[in-house]
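quick one
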Amino acid sequence: MKLLEVKGLTKKFAGLVANDSLDLEIDQGEIVGLIGPNGSGKTTFFNCICGVYPVTKGSVRFEGREITNFPAHKICKGGIARTFQLVNTLMNMTALENVMVGAFCRTTNTNRAREIAEELLEFSGLPEKKDILGSDLTIADKKRLEVARALATKPRLLLLDEAMAGLNPTEQKEAVELIRRIQREGITLLVVEHVMQVIMPLCERLVVLDAGKKIAADVPERIANDERVIKAYLGERYYAKRATLRSE
Ligand SMILES: Nc1ncnc2c1ncn2[C@@H]1O[C@H](COP(=O)(O)OP(=O)(O)O)[C@@H](O)[C@H]1O
Ligand SMILES: [Mg+2]
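structure w/ magnesium ion:
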């Protein structure tokens, strides 16, 4: 049985087809990367899986059970957690309290929620930040806090939406270590990321979206040499890099 099985998922916003009949299967224990240019539909795909948006067509099954269009809190309780591309830190709460919010998905006991949150701040490399207000954390720490809060809901599948955007190379390396630690805990991951040097070695498989359609799905080495992918995504990024170098 597949852990996640998405079939023909289509999401339309008025006339725009943000996700066009997407199929995706993920096995327990995998790290799968979801890549593609801005606006290609990656975040929308997450939102459809997690019950943030109702799907226009298609189905989502998790652990063999139909979850299409279930409300977001049910999907979270059912074992799928996600982070947000634009961090959703609760600014007036401490780091510990932010993670406790996630833990309350599993327990109504405040002391137990605190224990879970403390464990996960430790696991995510933030133990000394627990009493700091959300608003006072650096972007790298806010990103980690998002991951810790998602983990506090005890997911079996974790969706990370650009968890490394805006991080410097050292912070990126730490983020990769955290993702590997999460995998070792037995949690399956679907990861949206733009930094190719990070995503290529991290993922066993990559799925590429362009204008809402899946244009390729393969192991990273083959994706890096796929002509359609280079044209739609990688090429554009290489050109952008060259342009910045020239203007420096
Ligand atoms: N809530 C929304 N209402 C209308 N259009 C949306 C909405 N969310 C996303 N879109 C559109 O759907 C397309 C895919 O967006 P998105 O999923 O955010 O892409 P990505 O995450 O790959 O950058 C874009 O054209 C975007 O403008
Ligand atoms: Mg996005």
